[in-house]
Structure formats: structure tokens, C-alpha cells
Amino acid sequence: MSLLELKHIYKIYGDLHALDNVNLKVEKGEWLAIMGPSGSGKSTMMNIIGCMDKPSKGEVILDGVDIAKENAKSLTTIRRDKIGLIFQQFHLVNYLTAIENVMLAQYYHSIPDEKEALEALDRVGLKDRARHLPSQLSGGEQQRVCVARALINHPEIILADEPTGNLDDKNEEIVVELFRKLHEDGTTLIVVTHDPEVAEVAQRMVVLRSGKISRETVNEHFTGHIRFDN
Amino acid sequence: MFIRMIGGTLFRQWKKMLMIAFTIALGASLATAMLSVVLDVGDKVNQELKTYGANITVVPKQASVLNDLYDVEGGGSAGAYLKEEELGKIKTIFWAFNIVDYAPFINANATLDDGSDVTVVGSWFNHHMSLPTGEELDAGITSLRSWWEIKDGHWLDEQNGEDGNACMVGSALAETRQLAQGDTIHVKGSAADADFTVVGVFEAGGEEDNQIFTSLDAAQALDDLDGCIDSIEVSALTTPDNELAVKAAKDPKSLTISQYETWYCTAYVSSICFQIQEVITYSVASPVRQVADSEGAILEKTQLLMLLITLLSLIGAALGICNLVTASVMERSSEIGLMKAIGAYNGSVTGLVITEIMITAVFGGIAGFAAGFGFAQIIGRSVFGSAITMRPMVIPIVAVLVAIVTLIGCIPAIRMLLRLEPAEVLHGR
After folding, report:
1. ipTM field
2. In this structure, is residue B101 part of a structural domain?
3. Coil, helix or strand for A18?
């Protein structure tokens, strides 16, 4: 059974079909990239997979549960237990230090554990920056804190929305390298991006266009390492 | 983590929190000031109104029956008298400390040298009493009838040895008889004669202007009424009547035990009258309705006005809090959206925001309470010429009001927070 399965998903706003009969399966441990131009429905799909929105029609089976039928509170619980979110804008709480931002996810999940949070930061190479505020970290470092926060509760899926959108090449490489390690550890990754270089690193890529999956390719030369064209 | 987040918000948004605290302080200060004055204004207004005379009269039961029968007041003692020796007992009733002044009266019918009749009224002027309770009290008509205008001389001063043969004469009588301070007036009672020295001439604006006022002993001696008094006028601090007081005034036996206890232990004029009757043998104590009703009406209107000001100030504070908290939540929408996105339930986020605001409210409330206490003193000094006593009950009342107003002020922000979708703020959809 697939970890995630989207069956005939529609998301309709008035006359606009943001998602139009989308079908998709994601296997456990898979690294999937979702690509597409602006307005193609990438963010809508991410919101639905991330339990932050519900489809107008269709089924979203996550770990055997149709989350399209769940209420808001259940969706919060599912999101908390099964999904780790990474955002383009980082969204760190600016008055909390790096380690406290990681512990914030623990706090809403179970019990904050500083040692475990420090280990997560160590995993993303920021152990020595644990006591720094977001304003004292570079963009790449902030995104790595986001990755640590997404990892801390051992989610089934890491869902990243344009994770490298605000990063330079060097930091982009660091973040993609982190994803590769997570993939090696068996974490399921869904990365929404419009950056072909990031998308091509993934095992599989789907391209959305006008709310529909227009193309699906499997990376036959998958290595998990990013290759810059220039 | 929770404390760290609260602290972070309070420090990071200190300007906004300061504004919220200031708004709460403003509301709390007005509430404190007004409530302090409202709770103390009863005594203050009563004390002001005491200058208009007694509000309770005590007469022998027999005289009261005749007065009621013929619907007259001051219709004479009808041969029944109260006992002078029981006067001190008035200051032993449950509401003794609310008895601020009282004076006994005895009317002696006498004749002047030319054969014309004159009423000689015996009373206390500034009679000093050392009560069994240890309280020292100066009671009498000097303070009880402070509106009398002294046209010549001065008030009869019992404490300065002016008793026995000293008297005060009403202005009409003084004018007719050409009497002035230092003159002597000879009066003949049914039992004895007396020569009184005029120490003062007063104008009362009533029948007293044709009477002679002297000490109780001297008037009693004229008619051989040693130890007898016709009536007692009592000035007491009272609470405005309500339905219970009205019911009790008609018949205290109609009350249930708990109603009776409530009534007995409240300074209603009927309750004080009842207690005076308990200590003065064969007496009927009744309120001087005009004065008592005026007191009640003025007091109620004053209290209503102040409560309205309190209410309006609290509504103003709630609106201010509402705007500020809503602005704060809007400013933090991405932070709140993030919390929801990583698993915070609505209850957790709401609890966080309310805790932040309530902590701010505590500081604002304390500052407002202190300021309000100061405002109350300013009001007390400028309006009543004395300090306002801070009642301990003001503290919990203001605390509860601050909590309610703060929570009400948070409602729109909480509604917004509950409607806030993480996807909207995190992706800007």
C-alpha cells in the first residue's frame, strides 16, 4: 500500500479548477518532486497533502486514512504526527533561538527534549548555532533550522515548499544534500519546486499544469546529488 | 517553552503590550475610583446630610399612638415620657457607630412675668458622654441643628459650665421681649420658677423662634419632670431602603430568619429604629421620612451616576483592548499560522494569546488600581472634603471586572485567530 495516494482530486474555487482530477501515489521512502509554473496548483496540492486544506472532491489516503473526510482538529493531529513542513520563507519564530524553534515542534507534538533538539540541529550541521536567534543566522542556516524542526518528530513525510527558493547556490546544495541524507535514512520526501535543478535530483518528478499532472518522469540516473548547469 | 514564548511575546511586542496595559490601567483606575467612591459615598453623603438634622425621632409609645391616630407630629407626650437614664443605651445598639448624634427634648410649659405662655425646651447642647464602650461623644443640638443662625451671643456651652441657669432664646421671642446676650429672663413653671441668663439668640425659621432652650435639668425642674424626656432626635448613618427594608418596616415578624438577619445587620433606617426601640423602654422610633427619603434618593442617584461612569469606562477599555489585541494577532498571524501548521490546536494558541494578555492585564490592573485609589482620594478631598476609605471588597471586584473586560476585549481577536488558516498565512494564498 502506498504511503500517500491522491484519487481524483479536485479543488475548485468558483470557476477555477486549481486541481482538476489529480491522481498520484507516493511510496514510503520515495523522493518526489512536484514542479510547475505559477498558478499550476503546486501550492494547492501541497496544502492538501499537508493537511492544511481539503479537496473539493476526491480522496487523499495518507497512511491508510482518508484525510479528506477528517475535521480540522483531526487534520491538525495528523499534520502534527505524520508531516514535517519546510517553507520557502522559513517561518521561524524570531524571538526563539534555533534550538527553541526546533523544540517548539516538540512542544506541540509531545514534550520538548533539548538533547534531541540539539541532535536534530547537529544533523543539519548547526549544533554550534543552536543558541542563536533567527536574525543571527543566514538564510541557508535558517532553512536548515526549518529542516531540523521538520525532522524532530520523526514524520512519515517531509513536505517542502520551494525549500531553496530563497537560497543561493551554496546553501541550495547544502539543503539538497540534507534531503539526500534524509532519503537515505528512509524518509519520504515531497518537494514542491519550480527549480529544475532541485526537481531533477529527486527519484521521480511530476509536472503540474493548469491543475493537472501533465508529465511524470522517473530519474533513471538518481544519485540524490545536485548538478548545477553553470 | 510556554513561558519562553510568553516572555518572548511580551518583550518583543512590549510597545503594544504597554498600550494594552495602559488601556487596562485606565479602565481599572476609573473602576477603582468610582467603586471606592460609590462604596464610601453612602457615608459621605449621609454625613453631608446630617447637617440637615436628625433622621429618626423617638417618642413614648403612647404619644406615638396618639400621633398616628390624629395624623400629627409632635403632638405632645400625652403624659408619657421616656427615661433620661436610658439615653446612653442608644450608643449600645448593633449599629451604635452609625449613630453620629442625638439629643433628648423635654418641653416645659411656663409663663413669663407678664403672664404670657412660653415653651421652655430642655435639651443637650454639646453634652459630653463617656460610653461604656470607651467611646467619647459630644451630642446635642449644637451639631444636630447646625443650621440655626446665631443672631447674638453664642451656642450654650455645657462643657464650659453653662448649664442650669443659661438659656438660648428664639429670635422672635428675643425681639418681642428686647432680649440680648447677658439679659436675664424669669420664667414660672408648674413646679418651680427659674431665672435664665441669655447666652445666645438664634433664628431657626420655625416655632423654635418663640421658645427658650435650656439644659435638660433646668427644663425638667420647671415642671417637676426629673428624669423624664418627651422625645429623642437621632442622627444616624443609614443605607437606602430597599424592598426588604420596606417589608421589615411594616412588620419585622413577616421576615424569614435569613431575611431578618440581613435586615438587622444592614443599616436600614427601619433596622436602626427597631434596635433603638429594643433599648429604650416603651418607645417608638420612626424615621423622619422627608430626610430619610431625600438621603436615599440623593444617594441612589449619585451611586447610579458613578456606576454608569464605571460601566462606560470599562466599555471604553474593552474597545481599546479589542483594537490592540486584534492588531497584535494580525501582526503575528504568520507566527500563529506556523504554530497551527506544526500541530498547535486552536485551544493551545488561544490559551497562549489569552495568557499573554492576562499577564499584561495583571500589570495594567495593579497600576490602574493604584492610580484609581489616588483618583478616589482626589474626588473625596475635592467633593466631600475628606479621604475615601478603601474598602477591601474593591480589590476582588476590580480584579474580576478587569478579567471580564480583558476577556471581552480579546473576543474579536480570538475569533480571528480561530478562523486563521495556516495555509493562508504561510503561503499567502
Report:
1. 0.86
2. yes
3. strand
